[in-house]
Amino acid sequence: MVPLNMDEQNSNNxxxxxxxxxxNKTARRTYDMYQIAxxxxxxxxxxxxxxxxxxxxxxxxxxxxxxxxxxxxTVPYRLANGTLTxxxxxTTAAEMHYISNNIMQKINIYCGKPIVKSIKFxxxxxxxxxxxxxxxxxxxxxxxxxxxxxxxxxxxxALAKLxxxxxxxxxxx
Length: 173
Description:
The protein has 2 domains: about 35-130, DnaA, N-terminal domain (GMP Synthetase, Chain A, domain 3, 2-Layer Sandwich), CATH 3.30.300.180; about 140-173. It is built from 8 helices and 3 strands; from the N terminus they run ααααββααβαα. The chain has helices at about 5-10, 35-60, 60-65, 70, 90-95, 100-110, 125-130, 155-170, and strands spanning about 75-80, 85, 120. It has a 3-stranded mixed β-sheet with strand order 1-2-3. A hairpin with a 2-residue loop joins strand 1 and strand 2. The protein is elongated, with a radius of gyration of 33 Å.
C-alpha cells in the first residue's frame, strides 16, 4: 500500500525525515557527514574565537597598526606561537629590525593582549607582488607662453602651447 500524502509516510518514522538536522537516535552509527560537521564545530569554535579575530585584525588593519610607510612595504605573513613573520625586502627587514620592539608594542596594544612575542623577517617575492604599486604621477604639461602680438583664437592657443614645449626642452626638463 502506497501512502497518499507525505504526512502518512512520515508519521511512523519522524526521526528519519527531519530536514533541519538529521540525527539518528538509535544505537547504531551511520557515519553521516552531518554528525562529523556538528562535532567539528563544537571543537573549533572556541579556538577560532581566540585566535582568528586577532589574526584577522592584524591582516586587515596592518597599515593602520604599523604606519602607512612600513605598511605599504611589508605584509604580515604568519602568526604562530607568538612569532609574527613579516614578508618584506631585505633592506626593509634591516631597517625594521631596529624598530621591531616598537612594532611588537603597537600590535599588542592594538589587539588588546600580548599576541606577538617576537618578530621574524623573511624575503618573499610572492607576498610582495600583491602589494599595490606606487602610482605613476602624470607629467604636467608645460605652461604655455604669452603671445600678445597675435589675435585671440585657436591658432594663438596652439602657438602658445608649442612655445611652452620648446622652452621646456631648452631648459632640459
